[in-house]
Amino acid sequence: MLAIIPMTTVTQSEIEQYRSQLQEYPDALIALDVLEECEGDLEYAAETLAIKSGELDNDLDAKNPNEPSWLEKSAEKLRPHICTQAFKDVLSQGFAVALGSLITAGVYPGVPLTLVLIYISTKNLDNFCQDC
User: CB of 70 within 8 A of CB of 50?
Assistant: First the structure.
């Protein structure tokens, strides 16, 4: 039996909000451009960027549909860094400040970081971190 994972989408309005907040981060703007080209499909956009950056092989057809997606796996890698009170305090200062802190800390390389952080924020940080 195949697991059906609901697609996480971001609206055009939300993309524009992120774009206005992230003007100081060229890599984030690239990620948002790809998200827009993928019609807000966060998973597809993240995998597209991961393939372009070499973080993911372009063999998605061979992927087991019951395995967590690249986006879910990437979010899990960030869990130790974002499920802390210190990160929650930074996030309360705004999405751009939170992204900047992760970039500065070097916790996750590559352009897809923006989309991973958007994914986590769509899940609600407290809900995402409740298993920590």
Answer: yes
